[in-house]
Amino acid sequence: MKLTEIKKLAELDFYTEGPAVGTDGAFYFTTLSGRTVFRIGADGKTEPWAEGACPNGQAIRADGTHWFCESRDGRISSHHSDGRFEKVVLDGVCGGVGFSTPNDLIFDSAGNLYFTDSIRENGKVFFLGADGTEKVIADGIDYANGLALSPSETTLYVAESYGNRVLAVDLSANAQPRRTVLANLPKHPSNDPVGNLPDGLATDNEGRIWVAHYGMQAVHIISPGGACVGSFDTGLPLTSNLAFVSDTPRLKQLLITGGFGEPGPGAVVLATISL
């Protein structure tokens, strides 16, 4: 693996999160304290696109609507493809269980939604089915954070921030999904837990898991078997999240969010990696 380029796309007053590539090919990202979702168009200009109450994780449905974790208000909301607010999808409760700090969310190919509730010790992963089914599929996680699905969509990967590890949830189980530890991540030399904190996740077409390691200024690449097969420096002391822009066997491009402090300043970079 070789990092061939890190290109800064945007600098902002606020720390950034929620990277996503739109159905229009534009790049989107959120600013928590800035309460704004931004769009980077083909011309490279960064412009406000929508507003939200501390928008964090972002996922785009096949119909072009954007769904957000509103971390401050404890809800999941959706916006139309032009940025207009659509509705509150979930307001603090899913499957009869309360949540307070939704952080990241992801859709599978059937339109089912998974999202995390980021609290210490008893963080959870929730499920909202395309048919309206609501349930908790994992709990007891010490700050459940980023999510990613395996290419087959039979395994859900969860970043356990204060455990400094990535969990694998087997979705093929008929009853409660089974959970195992996929990988323990490198530790910061300071031994300060805040120097670790895996955050956003993404999987490539080969099934590798790419981990934004918040306190390590790095992205780690984990094999489907749990081995760390590569790392690179993002240039962002706080590396929050990542999304694939292009994904071929020999070349990967990643949209990476984060910044230099919280609540800011923040930045968005585009990393090109050759394999």
Q: Could you give a quick summary of the protein structure above?
A:
0% of the residues lie in helices and 58% in strands.
Major pleated sheet: 4 strands, antiparallel
CATH architectural arrangement: 6 Propeller
How many separate structural domains? 1
Q: Report the CATH C-level class.
A: Mainly Beta
Q: How are the strands of the largest sheet arranged?
A: 1-26-25-24
CATH superfamily: TolB, C-terminal domain
pLDDT < 50 runs, ≥5 residues: none
Number of helical segments with 4 or more residues: 0
Mean pLDDT across all amino acids: 96
SS elements, strand count: 26
Note the gap between the termini.
Answer: 4 Å
Task: Tell me roughly what share of residues is in helical segments.
Answer: under 10%
Overall, the morphology is globular
Output the helix-strand order.
EEEEEEEEEEEEEEEEEEEEEEEEEE
Radius of gyration equals 17 Å
Enter the CATH topology name. Answer: Neuraminidase
Strand content: over 45%
Structural class designation: mainly beta
Question: How would you describe the overall organization of this protein?
Answer:
The structure is a single chain. By secondary structure, the chain is mainly beta. It has one domain: Neuraminidase, CATH 2.120.10. β18 and β19 form a beta hairpin. The radius of gyration is 17 Å and the shape is globular.
Question: What descriptors fit this protein?
Answer:
275 residues, mainly beta, Neuraminidase, four-stranded antiparallel beta sheet, 6-blade_b-propeller_TolB-like, SGL
